[in-house]
# Entry
Amino acid sequence: MPVLTVKFPSQEVRYELKIEKGLLNHVSHEVKNVFTGAKIAIVTDETVYALYAKSIIKDLEAADYKVQCIVLPPGEQTKTFDSLPHIYSALADFGLTRSDLIIALGGGVIGDITGFAASSYLRGISFVQIPTTLLAQVDSSVGGKVGVDLPEGKNLVGAFYHPLLVLIDPLVLETLTDSAFADGMAEVIKYGCIKDLNLFHRLTELSSRKEVMQHIDWIIETCCTIKQVIVQTDEKDLGERMILNFGHTLGHAIEAYYQYEKYTHGQGVAIGMVAISRIAESKQMTTDGTTDQLITLLQQHRLPIALEDLEDYPKLLPYIKKDKKNSGGSLSVIVLVDVGRATLHQTTLSFFDSLDTGGTA
Ligand SMILES: NC(=O)c1ccc[n+]([C@@H]2O[C@H](COP(=O)([O-])OP(=O)(O)OC[C@H]3O[C@@H](n4cnc5c(N)ncnc54)[C@H](O)[C@@H]3O)[C@@H](O)[C@H]2O)c1
Ligand SMILES: [Zn+2]
# Structure
């Protein structure tokens, strides 16, 4: 099975990321290798609970662990500060101590909020990530960023906190809705855009979800490797790691403007990548034709390329102002030089002047 080791020597942090079809059937075996305590709290959402939690609980209990499951409502609305007290109380009621373990079983929402709860409960308790969406398998479970949203904006409270282990079972992707699968493809396409021309080209040859699934192990491993290499060189997001945010300044603004209801993270990122790429192309920062290639690939993988209501674009600006990458009036944006190569550009909010037309001016 492909095993990637993520290392941060400065903090003596090191953990494995295992990718294998059927891995969910061996959770207790994998957990035993990294954890010697007695109690495990699993945090999941209702959808994932119904599909996968029961067999994992059974497997862990058969291995003599005491297990408690905390089941949250599905969706981005769960990833808020207000959900935390319930999680902390449930962990405390279960009597979870520092020598115990939390498992995050679910998509990026569950991974992010559980990771944050793990980073703060008792000032930090070990946790294992079992990502169950494509987005979480290729992106959110790697790199240690955990957190929650505030009404004022996305991911505004959080921490850098690494798991003990990440278990990726590509078979669980079979039960995703088409829309959730496409969300993950937005991040996969992002990796191709910023770092891997070969990945981008291979994705153009896959025209259906079924075809993507035939190559899914390779796709996940390729994306995780790109992220692993980038985060290892820049754990705290001060330089190289920022290129992973291609499309995200706008994507996060879109999610927040519509109160996390109308567009998912992946859809926001898809629309955001197109808009920033169009603006950068109009400023001759990006090679001509790059945006068109990106649009074709996003559409092929069932992702939106523009807001439904074009008049909403200017309304995103106040949210861009609040972006974490905006400090003291100076804003870092990630632009493509061409497909497979991204660069960080220091600018101001005026960079987005042509956004009122979705970047088409
Ligand atoms: N920490 C990071 O570095 C990082 C990176 C990228 C994204 N994110 C965050 O990830 C979140 C989005 O994650 P997501 O797209 O996984 O959303 P999600 O966790 O809400 O999952 C999407 C939907 O799929 C369902 N689901 C999950 N696994 C399933 C399965 N195997 N079968 C059927 N249904 C399943 C969930 O119940 C949910 O309804 C956002 O909050 C985003 O900010 C974090
Ligand atoms: Zn993302």
Remarks:
- The first helix runs from residue 27 to 32.
- The chain has two domains: 3-175, 178-357.
